């Protein structure tokens, strides 16, 4: 056997081993129903196992070290992001250095995804596992819808569909991101079969049942990306036009929408709100920022959208976070320090109209998140950290779009759709900080830095 063949086998074995650890970790976090065991602890254990295995391969295998140096487009922004986080901690005495560990874990996953993308077998394991997870989550959400879930409900969200997640927005984010991936799998297959319709249908059903308006918009954005990619591929004759399959796919979406649209999604002040009513209320977010913020506590706002407690709460958090940015415009208030500083800033805005219209629990909440990933990062690390993040993600997306467009690779379009859906939902939530959802994002982002991928 030649030296080059031996080198290739060693790297393949290392990649397969890490892919299996990733898949096993994902399955463990997947089953981490809040009533069974903690997903965050499982995530920490998974990252530790991956870091130990990856570090072991780098130290003991010269062939792995040779192939492990990432491109400048990935390494440069990652270094700046880590550096900006470190500076923000250094110049804020109340910030702990341990706060930087979650960011290190995310960049480790990004690097690992890039390295695994060189071996199709590893990607098939990960892509197949994610697709299978999509099916299981959708089935579990439907079981809850039919009151057949064998697991106990969470007291705080006993009227919402959660599947295995602790919050309906977490379920919505997962479904919003995996729907474009399932749709890409549908387009990628040369012939339509039950196995191609099921992941799309179940992912869409879970997205509807989550009743998360931000996730609905994010899922639509991701699907538009995949749909555009399919049209480009058809026009360049790199994918077949399948009108009959598309007709049945459209009927599937229409049927599920009609079946689930009248289900009570959430209980409001006036009683149950159906999924269709919840969808119509998504327009409340437009113009909500114009509400007068200087009105004294107890004043009735003229704009009725302030009575939408979820949207009102988001705007209050963004108002508070902008004040953090204004007070720490250069280096931020310290990476991981948002929750520590939040009570002080919240109390300074107690006389605002938005605070007066929040629920009692929202007024007392010591939230760790700004419910906007970009604003949160800007507040904690300053403009340099946000810019590094945008360049890091943008470089990966640009590489993926160029490859997908030139090659007509529908699977890359699916991965891009996943990333886009996550980025859209990040405008109103904190999906990158969720263990399973965030892990999937960083791994897929690393994968699309490669020019050729095969997810299934």
Short description:
The protein is 67% helix and 2% strand.
Q: How are the elements arranged and paired?
A:
Layout: H1 3-30, H2 39-60, H3 62-67, H4 72-90, H5 101-116, H6 120-145, H7 168-188, H8 194-210, H9 213-235, H10 243-260, E1 264-268, E2 271-274, H11 275-280, H12 309-327, H13 338-348, H14 353-356, H15 360-364, H16 373-407, H17 410-425, H18 435-448
Antiparallel strand pairs: 1-2
Task: Work out the number of β strands.
Answer: 2
Write the element-wise H/E pattern from the N-terminal end onward.
HHHHHHHHHHEEHHHHHHHH
Tally of DSSP helical segments: 18
Sheet bearing the most strands, described?
Answer: 2 strands, antiparallel
Radius of gyration: 23 Å
Strand-residue fraction?
under 5%
* Silhouette: globular
SS-based class: mainly alpha
Proportion in helices: 55-70%
What would you say this structure looks like, in words?
By secondary structure, the protein is mostly helical. The protein has a domain of 63 residues. The chain has 18 helices and two strands. Strands 1-2 form a two-stranded antiparallel ribbon. A hairpin with a 2-residue loop joins strand 1 and strand 2. Helix 17 crosses helix 18.
